[in-house]
Amino acid sequence: MQTEAPQLTSETRFERKYRCTYAQYYAVKNALSSFIIPDPYTKKAPINKYLVRSLYFDSYDLPILLEKINGNASRVKFRLRTYGESAQENPDIRVEMKVRQANLTKKYGALIDLEACTHFLACRHWEKPSDPVLTEFERQVHARSLFPKILVEYRREGFFTHDIKPLRITFDHKMKSTTSRNLFPDQPKWQKHLGSIIVLEIKHQGELPRWLLNIVQSNQLRLVSNSKFALGMMSSRRDLIFQGWR
To answer: Please, what is the end-to-end C-alpha distance for the chain in angstroms?
Structure first.
């Protein structure tokens, strides 16, 4: 009897993004205070904001970036993500493929260690792929001629609500990027994004509760496209000129 091929598993959700001034951030966070609780990473992080660092892939003529800028309904991003401060910590790393289909986002991920990450970036091959996500990631890297293009970093506050488990709320601070081929470059030349703007993201599966919609509307927040990958490329690659993203 034949066995079934391993299936990719994903997190499926809708994502809403808003840009907040400091005044809006404090007003929104204060209004949310009775509805939300910090996630475990936020609780234990210094000043309750944890680091997120992502290395994004694209090919030489940047089709993934162009798909985003052109607003293609179906697109995919490929990245390596860590929450570790340095290579010396030997942090866990996530291999991720983030698929966008209209307003719906699916994220496929697998955990690896620093040794596996270093080997893959050098050889473009997993020595011992233990997850179908790794196998598909490697296949896509070769099929699309993908290479690391941009490293993006920011500090995140993450929250859950008391009673709606699939609903997640995050605030992203101090976003910056640099061109890089690895997650931990020796002397990165960081370029800041958006000045003092803070990005609010709402990730959900069902309808948003009325209290959350009221908070968003009463603080005059507007939905925006806020691709950290695209913003990073625009900030760190001055040879790329797309006026709509300046």
So the answer is: 57
